[in-house]
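Fill-in record for Class A sortase.
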Amino acid sequence: MKQETKKWLGAGLGLALFCLLLFGGLFVSSFHQGNQKEETVSSVSSESKNLFIPSKKAEKEGKKETDSNKIDFARFQETKNEDFSDMARPTKEELEQAQANLGQVESYAVGDLTIPAIDLAMKIFQGTTYEKMLYGATTVLPDSVVGKGNYVLASHNMGVEGKMFTSLHKLKKGDDIYVSTKEGQNVHYRVVTNEVVDFKDTRCLELQGKPVITLITCDSVQATDQRVVVQGELVES
């Protein structure tokens, strides 16, 4: 069980600090949470020296041969993360086509993300795959539960303000973030930090001692080593 968890956590971390879907693998043994009685130790394997560097395919901005009108619905029932180390980034046209067909996959979403300050409303899908990221935000860490631990979501920077996670850079401390689930749970977070970090900085993926939400995207639609990372703390109801 531990080995399987490590495997998917590694894939999730590698993707979280993606530059539109292509970065190296990461294996994390566990997290440390400051105020908890059970202490864990975070470690990164020696295989992660080139952590999150875009693959050659990504640098060439190759297009994945797929038709967003032909949706593989079986893929939306999977909750595990894919290996993105050798996958081409989607084009702007492919993303726009997928967004136009969002209604066909909405039933597979586990919730909705709403950020009034940037007029953002998008679907959340469990697990990160190439297909799911065409349609909305995806959970990065395995067994993610909103309102608990570090609820990490990743999405694309489309280069168009207001689309997907492109406008994250505009969020300010105190801005509200809302997540609602299919089960009717409504969770409120408030932004505490918004920063651009180096691709090697994975501290944002650790537990923070209190429930937080972490939103991650690239700071550019081009190949970049910088990531926009927004974190919000849970607002107790």
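KEY FINDING: The CA atoms of residues 56 and 86 lie 8 Å apart.
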